[in-house]
Amino acid sequence: MESGEQESIITAIKDIVTECTYGKVDLGSVPMFDVEYIFLQIRSKSVGEVSTLRILCPDDKETYANVDVDLSEVMVQVDKGHNPKIELTEEMGMIMTYPTIDSLTGIDGADINASNMLDVITSCVLQVYDKKGEEVFAAKDQTKKELIDFVEQLNTKQFEEVQKFFDTMPKLKHTIEVENPKTKVKSKIELQGLNDFFE
């Protein structure tokens, strides 16, 4: 993580998890949040369960404080209302799957943003169904162009439903309390994603 390059980070995570699980975890099919959790557990057992983070205090947005985080307490959490089934119309919908470490490899920054959204969405479509499920089309049987064309024709409301899937999908999360050493104000901060647990 010291290099700051996302591709290097992903490669290192893959190598470490593969070696430490003796190659028994198929990283290509495991959701990214599970890979992050496994990596965090490996790190906690090898380096120590407590990680000291330097956190910017939200009350004045200029003071930093050190906070100890017990990595053994960090869990993957699912937001309420999360559903991998996205109803596009009364007749048609999509069943989604989660991004894997392989599906994020090659995506700039491995963060879901406007420029790579279509690639991420199409890699996460498992099935498209029509006529209330009487017709089912597996994404693996479609070309990438067909999937992109399908996603591009979604209207704003349908696209918002797809966005909701990604916004509410399971994530590595943990809430910590930070006390500003100058003002003594205590604030709660939610750490989310692997990068938040390391400096």
Please provide a written account of the structure.
The protein is 32% helix and 25% strand. With 199 residues, it is α+β, with helices and mostly antiparallel strands. The strands form three sheets. A four-stranded antiparallel β-sheet has the order 4-5-6-7. The protein is globular and about 60 Å long. The termini are close together.
Secondary-structure content class: alpha+beta
How many DSSP-defined strands? 9
For the biggest β-sheet, the strand order reads 4-5-6-7
Helix content: 25-40%
The portion of residues forming beta strands comes to: 25-35%
What order do the helices and strands follow? HHEEEEEHHEEHHEE
Poorly predicted ranges (pLDDT <50, ≥5 residues)? none
Biggest pleated-sheet summary: 4 strands, antiparallel
Count structural domains.
2
Rg of Cα set: 20 Å
Overall mean confidence score, pLDDT: 88
User: Which word captures the global form?
Assistant: globular
Distance between the termini: 9 Å
Q: What's the tally of helices? A: 6
